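We modelled the chain as a single entity of 461 amino acids. Its sequence is:
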Amino acid sequence: MSHMPLPDPQAAAAPGPRGHFFVGSLPEFTHDLPGTMAHNFALYGDMVRYRVGPRTIFVLSHPELAQEILVERQREFPKFEGKNGLGIVVGNGLIANVDHDSWLTQRRMMQPMFHRKRLAAMGDKLSASGERMVNRWSTYTPGTTVDVGQEMLQVTLDIITQTMFSADVLGQVGSIGPAVDVGIHYASYKLQNPFTAPASWPTPRNRAYAAAQQTLDRVIYGFINQRRASGEAPGDLLDMLLEARDADTGVQMSDQQIHDEVLTIFAAGHETTANTLTFAWYLLSQYPQVLARLQAEIDTVLQGRTPTVADLPQLPYTQQVFKEAMRLYPAAPIVGPRRVLADTTVGGYSVPAGSRLIVSIYNIHRHPALWEKPLLFNPDRFAPEQSANRHHLAFMPFGAGPRKCIGNNLAEMEGPLLLAFGAQRYELRMQPGQPIETEMAITLRPKDGLHMTLHPRTVQA
């Protein structure tokens, strides 16, 4: 059983940059958070102390530290109260709920709908979305330049729409994606800038966010009301939310809670997978030997037929490619921040009350003590024999501990399946001289998109 270590008067202060006189490392955090964390990890090590505006923030970059904060002592370091991060967009959905008891009730009610068998029953919908993606590509002239990020957002939004709502009966689902995107950018801006105007002030940014929230409320409550009135039960995720019961009390979710969970699944469920797939296509274009091996596996197993979820066990290398893309470019590059309630020690360093803790998944996934040649794209890292002796949190794209992402099974089906759809019929090639920079808007994505040319494959199985 974990206990709060007493403050150690001999514990050293963690190393870190001095930063600017008044704002500390705020400009660096705002401009490029993953890059700033990676730079200072190389300089100072696994635990780095920052001053960011009025806050003291510690960035932790080792799986043992992640285990300590997110698993062993997770009750000591709670999520922040109030709306922050994705909570600004999704209300009190599963990601944002900071009250442990009500969060646990929510988690137990939702867990069954994300079991592999339940998701596998939706496999036909995943395949149909993949088919629509390649059919759309077939209408493009060979060599057409596409923004791969937008292409991947389109197909993952299609999947979440089909699995969540079965069909777009109101013709309004298309407005959810852009509204969520406005919310995510707004949340990212608020998270990285401690000195922002109150939400009640009529700034252009605040007004755009308020309009997006109105759109989301209208569409989602409309779906809930219509489904309740119709009495239909198509077995989609909305249906499961409406049916969910607390095992102890038998109580159902309120419309407000269903609204917040729908938004959570939308916000967290399509952009993350889309971003990982976007980086995967980029990496495959840079490593032709990996692409050739991926295509060989797909051609051998599928013999030219359409991929299905049932094929995934026979496509291990395809799954390894997706995992290696998640390692190098984790869609959620950080976990946190977590609150420090009392003076304590973490990793042997003193940590004062009121400071914040961030676990850098990005740094852990590129840690030279955990990964040989960590910057190389090498899907063989995830072959069973290479994974056997690795720390279980050396690879943690979905976080860790009780709050590990509930959608991990869906992502691990959807990502490799869409890779198989695309690589079976197409090659995506980088435009020469295009710089690849990342930005963090809650999730990690390519800055300014990723423009590639689309080429039908000439060799088919």
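As a brief sanity check on the tokenised model: The first strand starts at residue 12 and ends at 13. The chain has a mean pLDDT of 86.
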